[in-house]
UniProtKB/TrEMBL annotation:
Top-rank lineage group of the source organism: Bacteria
Organism of derivation: Pelagerythrobacter rhizovicinus
Protein's UniProt keywords contain Hydrolase: yes
Any one GO molecular function term: fatty acyl-CoA hydrolase activity
Entries under Pfam families matching the protein: 4HBT_3, 4HBT_3C
Keywords: Hydrolase
Phosphoprotein as UniProt keyword: no
Name assigned to this protein: Acyl-CoA thioesterase II
GO biological process, any: fatty acid catabolic process
Record InterPro entries: ACOT8-like_C, Acyl-CoA_hotdog, Acyl_CoA_thio, HotDog_dom_sf, TesB_ACOT8-like_N
Family: Belongs to the C/M/P thioester hydrolase family.
């Protein structure tokens, strides 16, 4: 929450705008988007859809989002009619035990000495997506950690939505915690004074239609950071282990203040 438009909201709304141009059989299988300018949460957003290509199996749409005269977001989404094909998928690297994760989160909350020390945890509770990290201290804490996270996600209130909306709900959730994952090794987090952070571009590939009224485990890691940018990637798994979607994002993580001074000093000593 805050004055800026959440990136996941722009992705989800743009995807639904494109989906309304499609027939019921063709569903989004991928999207690629750029966050061009910060949007404001309290201002209306106009989504304009352009038809790029359409064939028997695939169709491609471009969506541009504006607030007033300012273009803030651009996305290209591809839609595919279901058809048979070869199958393989990566296995989930974590135990698929939601109850254990819920119990772990409850224990972590009981141990919190100062709720203000973990503002991101309370801020996420106001989002429509419920989040249960496997390791809350890594996701919400301040200490440097390995750039790898796993969190259960689902709608806080059941949406009972159709296939197009379910994909939009997952797209919304895919923008959550990605920034945090890339920052974990450096002991910083979004919203801190020592970093300017925002999403730059984002991509999602839908392998199946999710049911986001049910739990999905989002397993993410960050293989690279440098030049004031960080790369994150992740997979969504259903409770039975099926891989449902894949997402990637590059984010701005520009050091400032004391953090920038430390990095410049380290570069000078290298």
């Amino acid at each position: 929450m805050g004055p800026r438009l959440f990136g996941g909201q722009a992705i989800a709304q743009a995807l639904m705008a494109a989906a309304q141009e499609e027939d019921a059989e063709r569903l989004a299988h991928s999207l690629h988007c750029y966050f061009l300018k910060p949007g404001m949460a309290d201002e209306p957003v106009d989504y304009r859809v352009t038809h790029l290509t359409a064939g028997r199996s695939f169709a491609t749409r471009r969506v541009e989002a504006s607030q007033g005269d300012l273009l803030i977001f651009s996305m290209i989404a591809s839609f595919h009619r279901p058809e048979p094909g070869f199958r393989h998928a990566l296995e989930c690297p974590f135990p698929l035990d939601v109850e254990a994760a819920l119990a772990g989160l409850g224990e972590w909350k009981q141990r919190r000495s100062d709720p203000d020390d973990h503002p991101i945890a309370d801020r996420l509770q106001r989002r429509p997506i419920e989040i249960v990290p496997l390791d809350p201290s890594a996701v919400f804490g301040r200490r440097p950690r390995e750039p790898r996270t796993a969190s259960w996600m689902r709608m806080r209130l059941p949406a009972r939505a159709g296939s197009a909306m379910q994909r939009a709900l997952l797209a919304y959730a895919s923008d959550m915690l990605f920034l945090r994952t890339a920052m974990l090794p450096h002991g910083i987090r979004p919203g801190g004074y020592d970093v300017q952070a925002t999403s730059l571009d984002h991509a999602v590939w839908f392998h199946e239609t999710p049911d986001f009224d049910r739990w999905h485990l989002f397993v993410a890691d960050s293989p690279w950071a440098g030049g004031a940018r960080g790369l994150s990637r992740g997979h969504f798994f259903a409770e039975d282990g099926r891989m449902i979607a894949t997402a990637q994002q590059e984010s701005l993580m520009r050091p400032r203040g004391e953090a920038l001074e430390r990095l410049m000093q380290q570069d000078g000593e290298a």
